[in-house]
Write a structure and sequence with these properties.
Radius of gyration: 27 Å
Distance between the termini: 69 Å
Shape: globular
Number of helices: 24
Strand content: under 5%
Length: 578
């Protein structure tokens, strides 16, 4: 009898173990397909609607290329495309001229202040370009720019000699915010490069210049191309700086043209969708090029026993290079920041800076004279915080599926994430409106559509960090917990998530910072009563309300820099290096 009972117990245990195993596999399968379906729905469905709107004539109920024919035949519309291409090309050239000497200087020379320069470039990198553009409008506005006023007084001019508005003003303002993409990419490659290649060239008689041009430059070329791709991508999708500097003088890029067509009277949704499609295609092509072409190139410069790279002695030129680097950083962030600060504390705009003309009332008035600013801050904090919560939970599941399971097609999640990364904010906002404004969703006119847009844009960034953090947690720790009887959810809660919390907290801070200041998506989704901080800044800019604009922009900039500093402290010095 006891033998029979023992056999039944063992059989029961085996059957129950098999059932539990099947249940866990079914649960994992449901999680995988549910996650993939959710991501695909919020990424591919809006893009499909956007593409259909550009190709379908709803009045004639037929597919057509008429919208594209019109877009590429009307000078104003096609001109926006050419301006975008020209802006990308010129920005790349200027960024290369700035970033390459600085990266080489901080990584391979003994120039003074090279460590400080690295830290300061992080602040430049983390500053929203539209706030920098507003700062340059305050500095170089043709009538009342702070740098133009003294020259007007000295030479008796009606207009200042500098005018930030127009194409070259966009290039000037954007270049100070684009070169960090190249700087961090190249500096990281130079830091990690095996110096043996350069030493061999020097032994053969090559001088410093020849070594740099024939050895160092080719070895870091993949990093240079990667940075160039990111600069082109950002030039194509950027909205804030062109809207502040170009649009007022009718110099439009594709992003500002999409907004103009969408917000016109009457709105031209079909043409706005047509203008948005090239931005999405270009962004996607750049990301595919970066992943496929650069990913295949084998430029192995890191070995197991690489010593620190030898610093190049450039004599007195190191002081010139240091001065150049500090000038770029000062011009890129300090001058616009001071301009915003001054605009926020001047009592009467355009009058000299004296003690009698200084006030803090602008900071008080923006919060006390209207509840719009308070509502905007509340909405921005709620949306940014909600985006972090949604993305942390969602991307943790994505990362676990990709890294911890063997399900076929799990890399589909990474692919969908890359598609989401390629959607510019303006195009995404338009796509979400076209997809979810009507039945059965009716999300337009609520904060929910903001949350969807923010989450779609933040998911790729959060996923990359979550995947990297999960790789650092050895799978044996989870296996030990399961052997001791812990189920999957308890293992994740007690083992995996606590070990990943530093990485998730740091990227959560970055995402919060990015969504708190988000302008491209917000400007498309905005309607009365749903103000967010970035939209108010844009409206103050259009109204030329310099005092309120300066106060609000300076507050956002300080919050932004504080959050980025916290994030960098949490994740380490390489937080923003590409």
């Amino acid at each position: 009898m006891s033998a029979a009972l023992n056999f039944m117990d063992k059989s029961y245990a085996r059957v129950w173990g098999l059932i539990k195993g099947i249940r866990h596999e079914v649960l994992r399968a449901v999680i995988l397909f549910g996650t993939a379906a959710t991501l695909a729905f919020f990424v591919l469905y809006p893009l499909g609607i956007l593409l259909k709107r550009s190709l379908y004539d709803y009045a004639a109920d037929a597919w057509t290329l008429a919208n594209y024919i019109r877009f590429y035949s009307e000078p104003e519309l096609y001109g926006a495309f050419l301006t975008t291409v020209k802006l990308a090309f010129v920005s790349v050239v200027v960024s290369l001229l700035i970033a390459l000497p600085m990266a080489w200087g901080v990584s391979r020379t003994s120039m003074p202040g090279r460590t400080l320069i690295r830290s300061l470039v992080v602040l430049v990198f983390s500053t929203p370009s539209f706030l920098g553009a507003i700062g340059w409008v305050i500095l170089l506005g043709p009538r009342a720019g702070l740098l133009n006023k003294p020259l007007q007084a000295i030479f008796g001019l009606n207009y200042g000699p500098f005018n930030i508005y127009g194409f070259w003003g966009m290039v000037f303002a954007l270049s100070f915010f684009l070169y960090p993409f190249l700087f961090f990419s190249v500096a990281a490659a130079l830091d990690n490069m095996d110096p043996g290649y350069e030493q061999a060239a020097k032994i053969l008689g090559a001088g410093n210049l020849k070594v740099s041009l024939t050895v160092t430059l080719p070895l870091v070329m993949p990093s240079i191309l990667s940075g160039v791709a990111l600069v082109i991508l950002e030039s194509f999708v950027v909205f804030g700086a062109p809207a502040v500097i170009g649009a007022p003088v009718h110099v439009h890029t594709l992003s500002t043209m999409v907004y103009r067509l969408f917000s016109g009277d009457p709105p031209q949704f079909h043409m706005a969708a047509t203008a948005a499609v090239p931005i999405v295609l270009m962004a996607g092509l750049i990301l595919v090029f970066q992943k496929l072409y650069l990913g295949r190139k084998q430029y192995q410069t890191i070995t197991g026993k690489s010593p620190q790279p030898e610093l190049v002695d450039i004599g007195r030129w190191k002081y010139v290079l240091s001065a150049f680097s500090f000038t770029i950083v000062f011009t890129g962030i300090v001058l616009p920041l001071l301009a915003l600060l001054q605009a926020s504390i001047i009592k009467v705009w355009g009058m000299p800076v004296t003690w009698d003309n200084l006030t803090l009332n602008h900071y008080i008035s923006i919060f006390t004279q209207s509840d719009i600013v308070v509502r905007a801050f509340r909405n921005s904090f709620v949306l940014a915080g909600g985006t972090v919560v949604v993305c942390v939970l969602f991307t943790f599941v994505m990362a676990w599926i990709v890294e911890r399971t063997t399900f076929p097609g799990r890399e589909l999640l990474a692919f969908l994430s890359m598609i989401a990364l390629s959607i510019p904010g303006v195009a995404l906002g338009l796509a979400l409106i076209l997809a979810f404004a009507g039945a059965p969703f009716y999300l337009y006119g609520s904060l929910w559509i903001f949350l969807v847009g923010y989450s779609v844009k933040a998911t790729p960034i959060m996923f990359m960090f979550a995947r990297s953090a999960l790789k650092q947690v050895h799978e044996e720790l989870e296996q030990c917990a399961r052997i001791l009887g812990a189920h999957w959810a308890k293992t994740m809660k007690d083992i995996t998530l606590p070990l990943m919390k530093k990485g998730l907290l740091s990227v959560g801070t970055i995402v919060f910072c990015m969504k708190f200041r988000d302008m491209p998506t917000s400007i498309m989704l905005y309607m009365g009563g749903l103000e967010v901080v970035s939209v108010l800044i844009y409206e103050f800019s259009e109204e030329a309300n310099m005092s309120s604009l300066g106060a609000l922009s300076f507050l956002v900039l300080i919050i932004n820099l504080a959050l980025v500093s916290i994030s960098r402290r949490l994740v380490g010095k390489g937080a923003f290096e590409l």
